[in-house]
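U., I forgot to send this yesterday:
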Amino acid sequence: MRKEEENMQKKNDIPSIDEIIKTYNTVLKVADTNALRQSERAYGGVMRSLKGGLQEHITEDIIKIAWHNLGGDENRLEVNSKKISVKISFGIRYRESPERKIK
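Result:
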């Protein structure tokens, strides 16, 4: 029975797009008010730092919605901040490509 309760709780954790938008708007209104009141920090710095964290939160929610819509097992989903290096090899340089002319 405990496992069923946990699964029900996880499904309740999946927000709707409308909830994400409402949260975004509410957070920005409060942050705007707070940023305007702070004299020791620049307005832009306060907003930039807040938006970074907000973006991470919104991204996680959108991933959860997509995973749920794809029918993925929510117990297998892990969202984290691990950095993964991806080596990009360009292969052909533009100057070598006959289709592309360099001015």
